[in-house]
Write a structure and sequence with these properties.
This protein is an alpha/beta fold. It has 15 helices and eleven strands. The longest helix is centred in the C-terminal third of the chain and has 34 residues. The protein is globular, with a radius of gyration of 23 Å.
Length: 364
């Protein structure tokens, strides 16, 4: 099973990407297709004396930069390493594509090249967050800023299937992120989503709060992309700040340094549990193929694990299982769509009525 890797995408490309691909090929036996400038990649492979490993190169003449708008990747740079990697998945030459480059561009290219799975309204980016129970899958974390209840219902299904087959959780508990656990809390969006998911075939536990993501309450937490991205970035900031504060305090004096030395095994274990490089990348759920987005600052270890995760996703046939669960919940999705149309009709009527009253007051 070959995995195509955008070798030119990421803060440390191509060196870290090629090194990660070499590790995936040598340690995991995965055939990696490195996509990018042929001469540069040949040199990188030769430097590592990896010519005999299951590595191949697919030439691409362009690179999508981190700061560029996704539209550039879709309309102008049609021979970019990112686009060519997903083209290889579409043609069947690779089972998955991995990129540590521009995440917005990766999502746009994946949707253009591979399209969406039948019945899926919107794709979602899922993040595997550390928790006291092991991990919690949070989605969407950035693909969709504005969402409808149907989108969140489908995100919940996607997250449940991903957690069941990739993280091996037998009966994942699914929750909707809200500002309180009470049913009276939340927004119109979360209340409609909550009502729909209570009718689903999922193991739905209702509203959950942000702290539950890390305390190990649910296995899957669903929200719109704006909220999810804010939670993700805030979590990264807290982890970095806590690590810095802890280091400062543990090196403040000789006694504390000795204590830190004696406890170094525990600190290393905690660091490993919270290290994003162990996860590797975030899956693009809902696309008609397999795509993983790695962190922009990914090192070789993160790239290796992203390649492994992409291979595992394809081997587990997650998309097939996802389509089966979506079909099982077709009636629920139709009900959610009707509820959404009714909500927007009522809101429109209220706005028209309000404007009519304002007009009458103005005439008086």
């Amino acid at each position: 099973m070959r995995v195509a890797v955008d070798a030119m995408g990421g803060d440390h490309a191509p060196e870290a990407v090629v090194e990660g691909a070499v590790q995936a090929a040598s340690e995991l036996g995965i055939h990696v297709i490195l996509v990018g400038d042929r001469e540069i990649l040949k040199h990188q492979i030769k430097r590592r004396k990896a010519q005999d490993l299951p590595l191949s190169i697919k030439h691409a003449t362009e690179v999508v930069e981190m700061h560029e708008h996704p539209a550039v990747a879709v309309r102008r740079k049609r021979d970019s390493s990112l686009r060519v990697a997903f083209d290889l998945v579409k043609s069947g030459e690779a089972v998955a594509a991995v990129s540590a480059g521009n995440s917005g561009a990766a999502m746009a290219v994946a949707m253009l090249v591979l399209r969406l799975l039948p019945g899926v309204e919107r794709p979602a980016i899922a993040a595997v967050m550390p928790s006291l129970r092991g991990s919690t899958v949070l989605l969407d974390v950035g693909a969709n800023v504005d969402c409808k209840p149907l989108h969140l219902v489908q995100f919940a299904i996607m997250g449940e299937v991903f957690t069941r087959y990739m993280l091996k959780v037998e009966n994942p508990r699914v929750g909707t992120l809200s500002n309180g656990a009470e049913e009276s809390k939340g927004t119109d969006l979360t209340r409609a989503t909550d009502e729909a998911l209570r009718k689903s075939s999922l193991n739905y536990v209702g509203y959950v709060e942000g702290r539950d993501i890390f305390l190990g309450g649910p296995d899957v937490v669903v929200c719109d992309g704006f909220t999810g991205n804010a939670v993700l970035k805030a979590s990264e900031g807290v982890a970095l700040a806590f690590g810095k504060l802890l280091k400062d305090e543990l090196t403040a004096g000789p006694v504390r340094r000795l204590g830190a030395f004696l406890a170094r095994g525990a600190f290393q274990a905690i660091r490993q549990r919270m290290d994003y490089t162990e996860v590797g990348g975030a899956p693009l759920l809902g696309i008609n193929g397999v795509g993983f987005i790695a962190h922009g600052s990914s090192d070789a270890r993160a790239i290796k694990n992203a390649i492994r995760a992409a291979r595992d996703f394809a081997e587990e046939r997650v998309n097939l299982h996802l389509m089966q669960v979506l079909e099982k919940n077709q009636d629920l999705e139709a009900w959610t769509s009707r509820k959404a149309r009714k909500f927007w009709t009522q809101l429109k009527d209220k706005i028209i009525h309000h404007r009519h009253e304002e007009s009458e007051e103005g005439e008086e």
